[in-house]
Amino acid sequence: MASVEECRAALVKLVAQFDEIDEEDRAKHVVERTLSCRVPDLDVIFYGRLHHGGLDPFTQEAPADGKPADVKLTVASDDLIALVDGRLDLARALLGGRVKIDASFGDLLRLRRLI
């Protein structure tokens, strides 16, 4: 089981990877969305925000408005790190039940094009 710090570092790496996506592609496929990443084996939730300018850094502080995230990801700590490092394929992880995403169908299609 990975630590909270290792998961936080993986999410920092994810933000950096997202910043490398071509601005034109982001403009086509990104709409502003709030994100949550629940890591049940560590009993922690990270929160972030996706927008045309990129992906904001994740924090452990829930948004002040109290609204649930638009896109909710649930993943074990080791799988989160493997996903970000490219050792675990997202589609296989979804099909195998290792990752759960709660989002609208439109959001899923948009995210698929960016990942």
| Unreliable runs | none
State the total count of DSSP E strands.
5
Structural class: alpha+beta
H/E element sequence:
HHEEEEHHEH
Please outline the helices and strands:
Blueprint: H1 4-19, H2 23-29, E1 33-39, E2 44-51, E3 54-55, E4 71-75, H3 77-85, H4 90-95, E5 99-102, H5 105-114
Parallel strand pairs: 1-4
Antiparallel strand pairs: 1-2, 2-3, 4-5
Task: Describe the fold and architecture.
- With 115 residues, the protein is of the alpha+beta class.
- The protein has helices spanning 4-19, 23-29, 77-85, 90-95, 105-114; strands spanning 33-39, 44-51, 54-55, 71-75, 99-102.
- It contains 5 helices and 5 strands; from the N terminus they run ααββββααβα.
- It has a 5-stranded mixed sheet with strand order 3-2-1-4-5.
In short:
The chain has 5 helices and 5 strands.
Index terms:
115 residues; alpha+beta; five-stranded mixed beta sheet; 5 strands; 23% strand
